[in-house]
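Design job #97: recover the sequence.
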């Protein structure tokens, strides 16, 4: 009998980008499913969206906050789109894609408009309303996943952590609209050290099971960052060369930058998507930036 040709199995990256159902069904369903280019390195970006301006002007700060956070939330929508595969989750996947389009449109609008003293509050209010809607959706999806009403590839804790980040965006814009430009150090430490612990644990769970050393190192890092978060809340420290929060922020960046480089160079066998690695690096860089101006 003549041998029958078989289509190659989809790569793990293709599966994550398109959703398991689409990837298995065939290439005809893959068209247009990934709306974003795969980033090479956050450090190659000339726009550096994580940078905080040295300013007390709420309009200037509003531009920086919207530029950074709208991109972060757009990433969240992309992650959820990738991790809500198959026909059973198609309605929720479309909801994530709708959020993605909305965040992308606002980023483009931000690039066209100059937020001034008389206009930034209105733009912020719209972003706050959108952020709150996304928070509600994430928490609803968390409850669906935790209760077994849906079976996605997103842990309930992932939805929860993503809602915390959106809430930080909402809080920051709300304060700027009240002409309160200060970045509060205890909030910075709580948000970004907790986030660092979540990232390290997530990296461990995205590693190939055979990568035992990397998994162990990532879980140890998660414990370390969570301990630093708890210590910072009990004994707040100020900016100083021996500041444990600053040290933890630097260690976080080193870890995430190394992971991004390893993913790009295909030196680890994980299912960490390049966008996920890039997203983590950008958040770690914002942590360092926030500490520069935190009070």
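Job complete. Output follows.
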């Amino acid at each position: 009998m003549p041998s029958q040709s078989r289509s190659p199995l989809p790569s793990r990256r293709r599966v994550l980008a398109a959703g398991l159902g689409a990837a298995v069904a065939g290439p005809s369903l893959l068209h247009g499913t990934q709306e974003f280019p795969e980033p090479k390195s956050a450090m190659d970006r000339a726009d550096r969206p994580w940078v905080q301006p040295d300013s007390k002007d709420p309009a200037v700060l509003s531009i920086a906050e919207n530029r950074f956070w709208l991109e972060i939330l757009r990433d969240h929508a992309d992650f959820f789109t990738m991790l809500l595969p198959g026909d059973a989750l198609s309605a929720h996947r479309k909801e994530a894609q709708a959020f993605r389009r909305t965040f992308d449109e606002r980023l483009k609008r931000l690039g066209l408009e100059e937020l001034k003293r008389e206009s930034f509050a209105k733009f912020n209010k719209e972003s706050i309303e959108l952020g709150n809607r996304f928070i509600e959706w994430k928490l609803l999806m968390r409850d669906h996943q935790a209760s077994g009403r849906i079976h996605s590839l997103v842990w309930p804790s992932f939805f929860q952590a993503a809602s915390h980040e959106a809430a930080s965006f909402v809080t920051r814009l709300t304060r700027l609209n009240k002409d309160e430009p200060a970045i509060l150090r205890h909030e910075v430490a709580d948000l970004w050290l907790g986030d660092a612990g979540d990232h390290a644990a997530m990296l461990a769970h995205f590693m190939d099971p055979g990568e035992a050393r990397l998994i162990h190192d990532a879980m140890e890092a998660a414990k370390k960052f969570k301990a630093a978060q708890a210590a910072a809340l009990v004994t707040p420290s100020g900016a100083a060369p021996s500041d444990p929060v600053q040290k933890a922020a630097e260690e976080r960046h080193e870890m995430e930058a190394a992971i991004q480089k390893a993913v790009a160079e295909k030196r680890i066998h994980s299912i960490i998507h390049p966008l996920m690695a890039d997203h983590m690096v950008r958040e770690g860089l914002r942590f360092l930036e926030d500490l520069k101006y935190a009070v």
